[in-house]
Every structure is written in structure tokens, then in C-alpha cells.
Amino acid sequence: MTGRTVRIGGGAGFSGDRIEPALDLLARGDLDYLAFECLAERTIGLAQAARRAANGAGFDPLLDERMRTAMPLAHPRGVRIITNMGAANTPAAVTRVTEIARDLGLHGYRTAAVVGDDVLDTVRAGDFPLIDREGSSRDLGGSIVAANAYLGSEGIVAALQGGADAVITGRVCDPALFLAPLIHEFGWAADDWERLGRGTLVGHLLECAGQLSGGYFADPGVKDVPDLARLGFPYADVSADGTAQFGKLPDTGGRLDAATCKEQLLYEILDPGAYLQADVVADFRHVRIVETGRDQVRVSGGAGRARPDTLKVSISYDDGYAGEGQISYAGPGAVARAELALDVVRDRLRLTGAPVTDLRFELIGVNAVDRRGRPGEREPTEVRARVVGRASTHAAADRIGAEVEALYTNGPSGGGGVSRSVRSVLAVASTLIDRALVTPRIQFEVA
Amino acid sequence: MVLRDIAHVRTGDKGDISQIAVFAYRPEDYPRLLASVTSERVAAHLGGLPSRKITRHELPGLHALNLILEGALAGGVTRSLALDAHGKTLGAQLLDLPISPG
User: CATH number for the domain including A374?
Assistant: First the structure.
């Protein structure tokens, strides 16, 4: 690679991710930018519920801890932070970050909010066909609690051009958190589809942080990963043409090589020739991954074509309650006793007329996650019976756990370790809306 | 010989779709992936999975296949009552798929 490069670090792969690898990248990584990707599909709906419950909440629960530890390292080094930790309340998150900056004595710290992803009013007022199932948004009726469009890089780029030290967003396409600083630094045109495709490739590889550098990879004796407990997060040195060199810091755990990069390249990609983003339709079919040194990989060959006319929208809606109970059995005959336990709970729920649906009866250790549909060769030494189902009320959902707990004195011999729960279900459906209906806006606060 | 001897996998999810990528460790084994990891054989191997449709994308440059299992996740992670609502364990369950040697 020749010419100037921009170094971007992947600081988080999900809302609850470890913080210290990002701090290590800030301290030792000579970064230009650090991005925290913290907003899964359902997270924004949960955040919306939190916002309703307590005014002022609704942003990422780890925002405070992440920013309070990252900003003192980032600011003196000139590293700009980009994150979607705004979740359902980006303006409140920006206010919080500005307060933290004042606490830390970072006078003049500029934080930008990128808003405009909230399209709840638009969705409620219209009728939009769902893309992942039959029906339309109107069928979800009054149960809709949030609707957020996946914005592209535009708002983040504007915030960077406005001198933001930190940019906080709600729902944006995850790779846009990484593509935006590349557009800002290199001046890529909004219709330079090939470079936008390459920048999206960089973002896609970094957005899950440790999943590029050895996380979610180890299979002992088959593909080993050293020192996972100290897993280091990756960074990329990106050139003006969009090709990139990926690495991780020395003296960190993990591994970053062609195999780990290939796994992440296709992770959660449906058609590798058409990765739909707000900024571009990226094409990963001809990506080349070359190992250039220890934990060093060069990635090229990304491509792209014109962006879609529509934006994806996630609609979060209340979907009733899920009730669950579990109980363990061990020793000779454990599976038969656990199966009897499931039969008893099935009969009890029927006899008492509990208004529950979608019931699942399964044995953890036998068939709870294994879908190969074949019995094991040996009886497991322990097994856990699990019953779960839906209900429209909390009380009805709680009937399931109650019947499992009753197995203590009414069921087969030797059952132990009952757990029971009821949770409200916040489900997500997806639709597409005309991008003209969505307008990203930015707001600054200065410490 | 089983798939685990020649390939590694990573599993992801998008809504009600499970996505399993399969990568040959050695380029020379890619033709065996093509021959052995067919949509039909995957459906039969994961016989307990209620997927509506399995699509296979071929990536010869990466010596990889991308399997798209529609309707496999009981409505998807936000709605599913399954213990592994993401279906994250599914790819590993493919690793004992028999592969014809040589």
C-alpha cells in the first residue's frame, strides 16, 4: 500500500462487549478513529421501552462506562469516537457524554447527535408491507412501540465535517459507522459505488470487533486460538482506494488470519453479491484475503453498485409474554424421568385449561438445540427438562413455571434445580420505506 | 470422514433466516464441499429443523459456501421461544456431515 492511510479500530461487537480491548487500542493502537457497534436488531426496541419507563433513559446502558474510560485516552491522541450507543434516545446520550466530558475536564469536547432514524410516526400513519413475513405494519396495530430506519453514513459524515470529537447515533447500518470516516477523510463521492463497497467491506469486517481476531472461532484441537481471555480487538489501515490492511496489537490474545477473516466476511451475509446497505449495494464475491505477516491480513477486491431507493426499517412490537420452567434430572433413568416430567406438565396445562400457546417441551442435553434429529449413542449423565410457551398475560405465562415447579413434590423422583421465569416479548418485524421519507439531522453539544 | 476434517463454519442469523458459511481449509477440498454440502444433504442432516427453503451460494474465490436456511428460526431471535433463539449452534451440527473420502 502506498499513500496516506486511515486507521480505524473496532471497539465493540455488541452492547455488552468487553471494554478493555478498546481501551488498549486507544492507548497503544495509534488510531485515527474508534467505532463502537452496540445496537442489535432488538436492542432499540428494548431501549425504547426503557425510555418510556424512565424519562432520560433509552441509550446504551454501558454508554457511561465506555465513554468515561475511552474519552480520556482518545481526546489527547486526537482519536474521534463513533458509536450507535444513542439507541432510542440519542439526544440524551449526547447530553450525557457532554456531562462526562465536563467531569473529565475535556473543555470544548464536541459531541454530535445523528437523529432522524425514528420513523414511528410515519409507520403508524401508513401501511407498509412486511418483508420477512406475510402481512403489513397495520396488522401490528397498537402493539408497535418503535420503528427505526437504518440510516447510512450521511449524518455521521456531516458530524465529522462539523468537527465532532464523538458522534452518537441511533439506528444506522452497522458498517456505516466505519464507512463514514473513510468518506470524510478521502472525500469519496456519494456515487463512487466501488469505493463505498470497499469501505462497507472494511466496516463489515470490523463491526463485530473480536469476531475478526479470533473470537467465536476456537474449536480445541481442530482450530485453536491462543489466550482468548485476553482477546485483542482489530483495526484496519485503509487506503484512499478502499483496500485495507487489518491487524491487532502485539501482546494480545487471539489470532487474525485468512481463516478468521473469511468467517467474518460472510457472517450474517445472505447474498454475498448483494449486501444491501443504505449507502451502497456491496459485493463481496471477489474479495481477496492475503496473510502478510503474523496477525496481519490484506483485504482487497470489494465492489459495489448503486444504493437501493428504500431504507430498511425495524418495527418493534409487543408480542405478549413467554413463560418458562426448567428442572434437572441425573443418574440412571434420568432421560425417562425427564420425559415423564414433560408429560406431566403437558397434561397439567391441559387439565387446568391454562391459556398458553406455542408450547415447547424439550430436554436440554438431548434435543433442545440439536436439530440433527438422531438420538445420542449414549444416555446423557444429566438432563434438564424445559417447558416454554406464550400467553397474552403475565399471569397466564406464569402458569408454565408454576407447573414445572410443582414437579418437586408431584412429579417423577429426583428432580432438582427448578428455575422459572416470565418475560415480556418485544418482537421485531421489518419493512422498507422510501428514503425520501427519512431525513438525517445532526445536533451538537459542546462541553 | 466428516465435514469437520476438511472445513470450518460460522453461523449467523437475520430475522427468521439461519446463515451458515462453510469454508474449506485447503483449496483442493473445495470441489468436495460442492459435491457433499448440497442443500438436500444439509436439509436431511438437520432433519429436526423446520426450514422452508435452503439456498446455497458458491464462492470459489474463498473456497466457501454460504447456506441460507429460510424459516429455520421459529420467527427469529426476537420472537422465538427456542433455547438457542439465534440458531448459533446449527453450523457446528453440520460438522459431522459425512464426506466421501478422496
Answer: 3.30.70.600
Instruction: Specify the CATH class of B3-73+89-94 in words.
Output: alpha beta
Contact call for B19 and A269, based on CB within 8 A: yes
Helix (H, G, I), strand (E, B) or coil at B15: coil
Same domain, A161 and A293: yes
* A130 at B interface, C-beta within 8 A: no
Query: What is d(CA A131, CA A129) in angstroms, rounded to the nearest whole number?
Result: 6
Residue A334 and residue A291 share a domain:
no
Domain extent at residue A406: 317-428
For chains A and B, what is the number of CB pairs under 8 angstroms? 121
This prediction's pTM: 0.96
Q: In this predicted structure, what is the pLDDT of residue A2? A: 58
Give the mean pLDDT of A160-177.
98
Count of structural domains, chain A? 2
Same structural domain for residues A285 and A345? no
Task: Name the residue among A12, A96, A41, A35 with its Cα closest to residue A429.
Answer: A41
Task: Based on the fold, state whether residues A75 and A187 are members of the same structural domain.
Answer: yes
pLDDT of residue A40: 86
Predicted confidence band at B30 (pLDDT cuts at 50, 70, 90)? very high
8 Å CB contact of A362 and B49: no
> Do A42 and B59 make contact, defined as CB atoms within 8 angstroms?
no
| Runs of H (alpha helix) within A135-227 | 137-140, 154-161, 176-186, 193-206
Task: Spell out which residues of chain A touch residue B76, defining contact as CB-CB under 8 Å.
Answer: 132, 427-428
The verdict on A293 and A409 lying in the same domain is no
Contacts of residue A118, Cβ cutoff 8 Å, sequence gap at least 6: A88, A146, A147, A148, A170
pLDDT at residue B46, as a whole number: 96
For A340-367, write each residue's pLDDT tens digit: 999 999 999 999 999 999 999 999 999 9
> What SS3 class is residue A430?
strand
Where are the domains positioned within chain B? 3-73+89-94
Answer whether residue A197 is part of any domain: yes
